[in-house]
Hints:
globular, alpha/beta, 26% strand, 8-stranded mixed sheet, 9 helices, FAD/NAD(P)-binding domain
Amino acid sequence: MVDYLIIGGGLTGLLAARELRLTGAEVMLVERGELARESSWAGGGILSPLYPWRYPEAVTALADWSRCHYARLVADIQAESGLDSEFVQSGLLIQGSDENDQALLWAEQHNLEMHRVTAREAAEIEPRLGLTVDGLWMPQIGQVRNPRMLQALIEACRQLGVQFKENCTVEELIYRDNKITGVKTSKGGLSAGGVVVAGGAWSEQILAEVDEGLGVEPVKGQMLLYKAEPELVRRIVLSGGHYIIPRRDGHILAGSTLEYMGFDKTLTEQGRQQLQSAAEAIVPTLAEMPIVNHWAGLRPGSPDGIPHIGQHAQVEGLYISVGHFRNGVAMGPASARLLVDLMLGRDPIVDPAPYAWKV
C-alpha cells in the first residue's frame, strides 16, 4: 500500500512522483515498458511551444510558468542526482513567419522578449543559415537535452525513495463506492490511496472504464540526429514548421513529422527525406554531416493542445495529467506542480478550470 501510485514513466509522471515524494508521501510509479522511453524521450526539448502565439491561453500559462522555473528545477535535479540535464538558453530564431505583428503583440502581453529581425540580423544571430529572411528572435527560449533530463529525474526520484515497477501494464483501475483503491496489473494487484494516470498516448486505454473519451490519441513524430562539431550551430531555428536544435556536444536534432497513424512508430523513408530536406535548407552545411540516428515517438495528441489535469468528477482519488500533445517538456514542470497542488489541496499555481476533467 502506497499513498500514491502513478501510471506512466515519462516526464509528467516522474515530475509528479518527485513533487509528491518531496512532501513525504510514499509514491510508486508503474510503467508499461522501460522508464522514460516514449514521447518525453523522443521529442526535442525546446522549452516553448512552436509558434507560441497560436496556442490557447491555457497552454501559454503552463509554458510560461515552466519557462520561469526550469533553470532552478534542473539545478535541483542535478543536485539530487549528480546528472546534468544540459539546460541551455539557446534562443529561438523563427524564420519566414507572416504573423509577426500578431506574435509581437502576444509577446508584449506576456512580458516575453521578442524582436523583429531583418535577414541581415538573422544571419548575425545564426551565421550558418542557408536562406536568410526577416524573422523573429526570442533570446529567452531555452532547451534541455530531454533524454538526459529524464535520466537525471529517474535517479533523483530513486534517491528520494520513489518506488518503480517497469514492464508492468495496468490492466484495470480498482475502485469501490466511487473511491479508487488501486490497480490490477500484469504483475498483480497494487493498492494505493490515490492513483494518477499519466500514460501519454496510452491514457485512453487505461481510463476506458471511467471516461467516455478525452480525445487523447497517438500522433507519430519522426526525428533525425546529425553529428557535427560543437557550436557549428548555436541557436534553435524554426522554419516552415520544421526545426533544428543544437546540443552542447555538436549533435543537432532535426524535427519533426506529424502523422496520425495510430500506435505505429514505423520509420519511413518519406519521413527521413522530409526532415533531411528541411534541416539542410535551414543549415546547408548539415548536408556534409553524418546522420547518426532516426527515431519516432508517439505524442499524446489532444484536440486543442490543452492537457487534462485534475480529479475525476465521480471517482475520488483518481487523477489525470494527459494530452500534452507537442508541448509536454515545455509545460511539464507547471503541469506536475498544478496536479500536485490539486491533489494536496494547495493553492494552485494557475487557474485549474481550463484543464478540468470534464466527464
